[in-house]
Amino acid sequence: MMAAAWANQYDIKTRIIDKNNARIGRGQADGLQARTLEIFDSFGVAEGVWKQGFHDIEICTWLARGDEGIYRSQRVLSQKAGISRFTQTCINQAIIEQTFVDLLAIDGRLHVERNVLPENLSFERSHLGIQNVYPINVEVRHLQRHRTSPLKNGTREGQKSHIQIKSDEDADAANEQANGDTEATEKINAKYLLACDGAHSWTRRQLGLPMEGEQTDYVWGVMDIVPLSNFPDIRQACAIHSATAGSILNVPREDRLNRLYIQLGLEDNSNNRAQITPRTMIKAAQKIMAPYTIDFKYCDWWSLYKIGQRISPKFSGANRIFLAGDAVHTHSPKLGQGMNVSMQDAYNIGWKLGAVINGTAKPDVLATYETERRQVALNLLKADREIARFYSRDSEKKQNGADTEIPDFGRIREKMHEFLAGIGITYASSILVAGVVDDNAAAVFANGHSGMHKSVIAKPALAFNIKLGARIPSYKILNQAEARPVQLADLLKSDGRWRILVFAGDIKDSVQSTRIKELGSALAAPDSILHTYTPTHKPIDAVIEVLTIHSSPRTEVSLFDFPDIFHPYHEELGWDYWKVFVDDKAYHDDDCGNAYEKLGVSRLEGCLVVCRPDQHVGYTGALEDIKDMERFFEAILIPRV
User: Fold this and answer.
1) Which CATH number fits domain 2-54+86-210+310-420: 3.30.300.180, 3.30.470.30, 3.50.50.60, 3.40.960.10?
2) What are the boundaries of the region Disordered (predicted)?
């Protein structure tokens, strides 16, 4: 769904196929990071999810005290204050899926084709390097429960799509359920394929890619219930450890629900699994939570899972077939990261596919999907192993000895807080992230990334709280013309555009004013990056948008103190009043006026910051570094004629 949202923005032909006959109704993932909510907000869909969900503010740890049962040992913040305007939120995955179904339905162009089962995948290797061909061939079956458009002789041949997005939990299971009844077969030809088809990924198996890593045999239960309990922190997220009965992770949810992850103390075999029911699970929970009581009369959903950390050696096949989410990395659900990292995988590859397919960006950018997202997955698996040790502390002590050191929960959360919020993800240097210079004046780059322009060196010291490769932090600024406060992130919508943020500094200073005028002249020149990469029939901001944020007092500066290119003129609509902003105090909002300080930018001299379409920072430089910025874009974008 996330990748489909990008496809909508780039207006490229896309098909979404799913073997299931409906979206999920209950259960599955339920935690949303702050960063994921920021991404939702960039598509305009965060508000509904934010209002409905449970806001996870605090986590409590409960430990055993001799024979007296459990006691609260600490409270820690779920998320460090000030790193995002959103906090972690817990809500049913079905609500999240429906949010994106509704988003795609706004213009009626994209929808999920259900009961469509893939059966064969092949691609023409000799055509992989040619952009305007459809080298991927997927044969699918339309199961009888799903009516499609009329078919000639029961088969549609040669249907073409720029991207095919597979949403499929387990194609083998669907094959078993189909019972041989089909309405039609179809052959789909595609330029690219993105597979989000789960831990048993059919697509990954077609590519011959194994899952590598570790998996234990211990079974945990998970259930969504309306709890009947005298436990005082039942509406707080809690890590609960008994002396001998195991552990529980309690996660409050929307609509009075609580999710319990319960250590069952069983090894995985068919007999054990057959005996486990919601009643079995709640009895285990009652022992762990003693002397407090817990029971239920309503269970919304339940399941079983094993702890394991596994990853595929590759995230793509020839940079034409891409794998995302559980299809390439699996782990326990205790960090609340699975759905988030999966959607962020799709968010990362989605804009790159869109830009390549519509001819804006060079195909080289597609290789950065694996280098960027595989490292995130490796970091996630490392974090998951550490947190799994904490929750399985009794099993680990039995196995490795009573003196085995188990990390403290508060220290784990403190060490991981930015990563767990999704804010700490920083992509290494590549063609999409400029290199830096270390103290020895040596260029620092990611190891041997193909297509990297090593001549482009960024100057992060000019904005020392803006990390290259990370998403840019958001603070409130004022619209110069309207005096209205706005979050910086609200200017960076996921619409496929690059942004040049011109931190203009104090333009009342004569030297600084001259620097801004010279920058404006360079950007307005016929051979500038704005004109080079923008089609002649489109607005000047269609590919790269220039947004200006100055630091002079708002009432002492006019929009027309800035070069025209900073607020372009349209013959029918007039001047663009929504591209020049100021870091100044607001009339009715005390949070304004300190963005420069928080971002680490000089209020006098300012700087340039280039944001990718996914809000991650690609380049920082001085106002005079227009040539370096041109070289940065030259490695990525395709000149338009």
Assistant:
1) 3.50.50.60
2) 145-182
